[in-house]
Amino acid sequence: MSVTIRIVSNDTELKEIAELASEIWHECFVDIISEGQIDYMVGMFQSYNAMTRQIINEDYSYYAVRENDELCGYIGVKPEKDKRLFLSKLYLRKDKRGKGIASLMLKNVFDTAREYGNTEVYLTVNKHNDHAIAVYKKIGFKVIEETVKDIGCGYVMDDYIMSFAL
Ligand SMILES: CC(C)(COP(=O)(O)OP(=O)(O)OC[C@H]1O[C@@H](n2cnc3c(N)ncnc32)[C@H](O)[C@@H]1OP(=O)(O)O)[C@@H](O)C(=O)NCCC(=O)NCCS
């Protein structure tokens, strides 16, 4: 298995990631939120235009995860105040899960955070996303808060905030 995790530096790759994001979201969240909310959230947070805005205006970085040169996942991070790194996105295509790639992705996030001088990585995860929560707990993240965030159009994000001390 040859896995690479590299920062996204061109539009073509970001467009590929947007396509993969839509595919993964429509597969993994279908039992958790409605199709309408999936479309809405993909448009707001994971579309090519949304990710371009995040990179230009909000200091986000995206990383493409490839196995044998094939795009199979992506990571999105954003450094914040108080030496915290926000792990905004950690997504892997279904057929690539359970193979150790997620742990490589999280190691990459922790390495990036240390390079930025961060002392904490935090994320939000849907309270019903049992597998992701189990993975994060196994790695050492802890639930520090519960939140319900209104994201418009009658939709909410019903999340735990989880934190990992570096
Ligand atoms: C979240 C995600 C990236 C994790 O990737 P994955 O391939 O499923 O994770 P793995 O099965 O490799 O598990 C990672 C680690 O957690 C452990 N783990 C997995 N399930 C576990 C469980 N139920 N209990 C305890 N540990 C568990 C694994 O053993 C592994 O540890 P190891 O590398 O030390 O062996 C992937 O499932 C995904 O993309 N899901 C859909 C999108 C999503 O929900 N993203 C998160 C949004 S916040």
Structural features:
40% helix; 7 strands; 166 residues; Aminopeptidase; 37% strand; 5 helices; single chain; seven-stranded mixed β-sheet; alpha+beta; binds coenzyme A
Largest sheet: 7 strands, mixed
N to C succession of SSEs: EHHHEEEHEHEE
Kindly estimate the percentage of residues that lie in beta strands according to DSSP: 35-45%
Identify the bound ligands.
coenzyme A
Going by CATH, the architecture would be 3-Layer(aba) Sandwich
Number of spatially distinct domains: 1
Task: Tell me roughly what share of residues is in helical segments.
Answer: 40-55%
Strand order, main sheet: write it out: 1-2-3-4-5-7-6
Mean pLDDT: 97
* Topology-level CATH name: Aminopeptidase
Silhouette = globular
CATH homologous superfamily label = Gcn5-related N-acetyltransferase (GNAT)
What is the CATH first-level class name?
Answer: Alpha Beta
- Measure the end-to-end span: 28 Å
Structural class: alpha+beta
Rg from Cα: 15 Å
Q: Explain this structure to me?
A:
By secondary structure, this protein is α+β, with helices and mostly antiparallel strands. The chain has a single domain, classed as Aminopeptidase. 40% of the residues lie in helices and 37% in strands. The protein has five helices and seven strands; from the N terminus they run E-H-H-H-E-E-E-H-E-H-E-E. It has helices at 11-28, 35-46, 48-58, 101-116, 130-139; strands at 3-7, 61-67, 70-80, 84-92, 120-126, 142-152, 155-165. Strands 1-2-3-4-5-7-6 form a seven-stranded mixed β-sheet, sandwiched between helices. Helix 1 packs antiparallel against helix 2 and helix 2 (35-46) packs across helix 3 (48-58). The longest helix is centred in the first third of the chain and has 18 residues, at 11-28. The structure holds coenzyme A. Coenzyme A binds next to helix 1, strand 4, helix 4, strand 5 and helix 5.
